Amino acid sequence: MVDARHPVSPPCPPPAPAAGRDPAPARRWSRYLVTALALWTGLLLTLNLLVDPFQVFGLLPLRDSYGPNEMLNKYRHLAAQPTRHDAFLVGSSRMGAFDPAHVTALRPERRYYNLGVLGSRPAEQLALLQALHAAGVTIREVVVGLELYPFLTPPPRDALTYRLPPEVTGESRLSFHLAYLWQVDYPRLVSRLIHQFHAAPQMHFDFTGSGRYLLTGLERERAADPQAYQQRYVADLPESPRPAGPPPWRADAFAELTRLRDWLQAQGITAWYFIHPFHPGDLTNVPVSAPAEFVRQLRALLPAVHDFSRDARFLSSRDYYDYKHYTSAVADGILHALFAASPTASPSDSAALAGGGD
Predict the structure, then answer these.
(1) Sheet holding 306-307, edge to edge
(2) Rounded distance, CA 189 to CA 22, Å?
(3) Distance between CA atoms of 133 and 263, rounded to whole angstroms?
(4) CA angle centred on 314, ends 248 and 67, rounded to 5°
(5) Helices in 56-121 by DSSP H: which ranges?
(6) Closest residue by Cα to residue 145 from 325, 351, 343
(7) What is the β-pairing status of strands 306-307 and 270-275?
(8) Alpha-carbon span 174 to 179, nearest angstrom
(9) Which positions ≥6 away from 316 have C-beta within 8 Å?
(10) First and final CA of the chain: distance in angstroms?
(11) Residue 3 DSSP symbol
(12) Rounded to an integer, what distance in angstroms lies between the CA atom of residue 332 and that of residue 204?
């Protein structure tokens, strides 16, 4: 019963929208924005999947990236054919100059593969060898090239370049590949696209053959005009002050090498160790004491290491692509010094040069 003294008020009508404010356009723009973001994300992921700057998906037969995951590609190739090779060249980018066919000519009882990885450290080299051994790959002997820079404090590195294969770490293959799919590396993606449209390849990673990488673009430029090439890439530098003080050794670097040495010994694997030649142009930013200290520490760990760091036979600028990387002429001379009679002349010279070898 309604109390006449307190009549019920009629319900209030909903507030009318403010004059001139229609919510429909805002909702439409929100939908457009979400759709555009979804399409852009999908386009980037598709492009990343197809261009594949780290070469982990392999969906399209494109020219090689400038920075693929070498450990993944080499591991999967070798693990799929565990009896094809039984000896390996181990080290960082300078090992790219070594042709396994030239090693086999000196060691015909062995079948060599170039297992060098750009910028790799002893810990990564050991992990890759251990993984191959666990996968049933026979390892009879190795040649290990040692250079200064992996032992010094380095600049930050791209983790995806050196990410170990999931077969090694136990990571799921889905997780491994999603990490590459979702992390779009724009400079590498663009550089691989540009490489695809060059008139000729600029470099090639021969994962399924020799294992080495080939600087085909630089080789063409060098062959076309050796003097101009040398002036551009390996010109003699004027004397300049070098940093003083103790070398900034990377923590645990020599301990990593010790673990690599000990594992090779424990497996009964024959190992040759050598120190790469140090071109003077490559030492301008290194403390004065670093090269000699590096050699001293290596000799303490590896008494039989072959030291080519100051060997004049292997320091001619004519035999270098740049101050760090030498050509196969130097690599062949080093191989002969390791496995046969030491060469008596520079790879580019017929005149004998004085200089220490081991």
Answers:
(1) 112-114, 87-90, 141-146, 270-275, 306-307
(2) 44
(3) 11
(4) 60
(5) 70-80, 100-106
(6) 325
(7) parallel
(8) 9
(9) 346, 347, 348, 349
(10) 114
(11) -
(12) 20
pLDDT in tens, 188-240: 999 999 999 988 999 999 999 999 999 999 999 999 999 999 999 999 877 77
Cα–Cα distance measured from residue 279 to residue 262, given in angstroms and rounded to the nearest whole number: 30
The phi, psi pair for 88, rounded to 5°, reads -145, 145
Contact (CB, 8 A) for 75 and 167: yes
Pairing of strands 141-146, 87-90: parallel
- Length in residues, the chain: 358
Where do we find the tokens 């270098």? 320
The two structure tokens encoding residue 266: 């424990």
Place of tokens 């598709």: 46
Residue with token string 């220490």: 356
CB 129 within 8 A of CB 71: no
Q: State both tokens at 353.
A: 């040069």
- Cα(210)–Cα(115) distance, integer angstroms: 9
Q: How far apart are CA 333 and CA 138, in angstroms?
A: 27
Which spans in 52-69 are helix H? none
Structure-token pair, residue 40: 């852009």
pLDDT digits (tens, 9 = 90+) for 274-323: 999 999 999 988 999 999 999 999 999 999 999 999 999 999 999 999 99
Tokens encoding 94: 């300078």
Maximum pairwise Cα distance, the chain: 125
Integer angstrom CA distances of residue 89 from 111, 114, 207: 11, 5, 13
The pTM score is: 0.85
The answer for 52, left when phi > 0, alpha when psi is -120 to 50, beta otherwise, is left
Can you name the residues that pair with 275 across neighbouring β-strands?
A: 146, 307
